[in-house]
Design goal:
The chain has 137 residues and is an all-alpha fold. The protein is built from one helix and no strands.
């Protein structure tokens, strides 16, 4: 029997190359799409990391700003309270000084009245004593 004629002998490398080539022709677009998807995922992850880091930085900046405003506000409240206390103290001191002056005036008036009474009584007593002793002139 005669042998069937076969084509030229192909190496395994040729067969493998042909199979890869056929596979790429039929499925290559899927691999490219997956590559695109992986690239998109990588881009998304990078953008996500950037957005997260930017948001965190903004939040840290806002917290720092709030702390500064809070410190300034606290300092302002403390200063206002100190100023009110100082003003209250000065008003109290002024009230005490005015009250002391009023009492001094009252005491001066009372001393003057007592002095006048003493002089009148002294003169009256002196006059009565002179009359009783018969030393009248």
């Amino acid at each position: 029997m005669p042998k069937a004629k076969r084509g030229p002998k192909k190496s395994y490398e040729d067969i493998y190359t042909k199979q890869v080539s056929d596979f790429m022709e039929t499925h290559g677009h899927i691999i490219e799409e997956e590559g695109d998807i992986f690239q998109m995922a990588k881009n998304f992850e990078e953008r996500y990391d950037f957005v997260i880091s930017t948001a965190k930085q903004q939040m840290d900046d806002e917290i720092a700003e709030i702390k500064i405003r809070n410190d300034k506000f606290s300092e302002q409240l403390i200063n206002e309270h100190q100023n009110r206390l100082l003003e209250d103290f000065q008003n109290l001191k002024l009230d005490i000084e005015l009250t002391l002056e009023e009492h001094e005036v009252k005491v001066d008036i009372q001393m003057k009245v007592l002095e006048d009474l003493y002089k009148k009584n002294k003169k009256k007593l002196l006059d009565e004593g002179i009359k009783e002793l018969g030393l009248g002139f």
